[in-house]
Amino acid sequence: MTQTTVKTNQEIKSIRPLTDEEVTRFHKDGFIIIRNMFSAQELKPLQEALKKDPTMGNSQTAVIYEDGKSWKVSAWTDLGETFLGIMPRTARIVDAIELLLEEECYHWHSKIVIKQPGDGKVDWHADFSAWYQDGCLYPNMITCSIALDKNDISNGCLQILRGSHVMARLDDVTRGNSVAGDPVRMEKAFENHELVYCEMDAGDVLFFHAKTLHGSDGNNSHEVRSLIHSTFNARSNEPIFRERQQHHLYKPLTKLPDSALKDANCSAFDDQIFHGKETDGNKRKGIFLRRLPHKE
User: In Å, how far are 9, 68, 74, 244, 290 from 226, measured between CA atoms?
Assistant: First the structure.
C-alpha cells in the first residue's frame, strides 16, 4: 500500500519570499507593492469567470455613499476548494504575511471589490477602526490586495497615505451605508503624510498594515477595476468578543504550495460560500454594516 505524505505548513515554502529590504520598507511605510506575484496563467480562470458572471452569483453588496454612487463587493471567510479559497492559502501570501507579522496568522476575511465604469469612490479610512470594534486589541493585521486587472488613476486605483500606520486609531463616521475616518484628523493626516497612488497591473500584490489610511476615487474610465482583498490576523490577536464573531475566531490555516493555482481543478467561485448580502432588510449579516456585540 502506498502511503501518502502530507507536508506541514513549515515544510511548504514560497518560491517568491519577501526580501529583507521589502520587509523593512513595509514597516517604515505601512505598505509595499510586489510586482508580478501572480502570473497571467494563474489569474486567467478567475478573470474569465468574472467576465461571464460579473455579479458573482448575485452575492454582491452595494456600498452606497451620501452622493448616491456605489461600488460592489462580495465577501467570504470560509476557504474552501474554489479559486477564491485557494489563492489566500498559497505559500507566497501566507509566508509574506507571517514574516511581516512575525507570528502565525489566520484568515480574517476576503472580498472582491469590483468597480464598474461610473462607480463611486471609497472614502478614506483605516480598517483597524472596525476590527477594533470587533474585539481585536492590537493592529497586528495585514491585508494583501491582488490586482485582477489594470488599476490606475483613471479607474480609481487604491490610494494610501505613506507612514500613516503609526497614527493613533481613528474613530469612524457614517457615510451612506458605510463609514469613513474622522474628517478632522484626516485633514491633518493629509498634511503630514505623502499620498501614494497604488497603480498596479494584473498579478501585482499590495500588502498594507491594518492602520494604514487608504481610499480610492471613482472609476472615471471605460474599464472595470477589480481587486481581491485578503486580510489576515495574528493568532495572538483573536477577538476578545465572542458573540457574533464566530467567523473571526482563530482557525488553523492550511498553507498550499505556490503551484496550487495552476494545479487546481475547481470552479472559480461557483461553490464559494459568501457572506450574506447587506441590504436595508438584511443588515448586520456581513462585514460592513456592523452592530457592536458588546453594546447590545
Answer: 30, 21, 11, 29, 24
59-63, long-range: CB < 8 A, 24+ apart: 59/274, 59/277, 60/114, 60/277, 61/277, 61/278, 61/279, 61/286, 61/288, 63/122, 63/176, 63/177, 63/178, 63/288
First to last CA, the chain: 57
CA 153, CA 200: separation in Å to the nearest integer? 10
The residues, any chain, with a CB within 8 Å of residue 250's CB and separated by 6 or more, are 106, 233, 235, 238
Amino acid identity of residue 51, one-letter, is K
C-beta separation of 100 from 17 below 8 A: no
Q: What is the DSSP string of 107-154?
A: EEEEEEEEE-TT---EEEE-THHHHHHTT--S--EEEEEEESS-B-GG
The answer to whether residue 294 scores a pLDDT higher than 50 is no
Q: Taking residues 175-203, what's their average pLDDT?
A: 90
Four-residue CA torsion sign, 45, 47, 52, 54: positive
Which residue shows C-alpha cell 465577501?
75
Per-residue pLDDT tens for 239-274?
999 887 888 999 999 999 999 999 999 999 998 999
Angle at 228 between CA 155 and CA 145, to 5 degrees: 85
Would you give the DSSP letter of residue 247?
Answer: G
Reference 38, options 47, 51, 50; nearest CA is 47
Instruction: Compute how many other C-beta atoms are within 10 angstroms of the C-beta atom of residue 249.
Output: 12
Separation CA 77–CA 48 (nearest Å):
23
pLDDT given for residue 26 in this prediction: 98
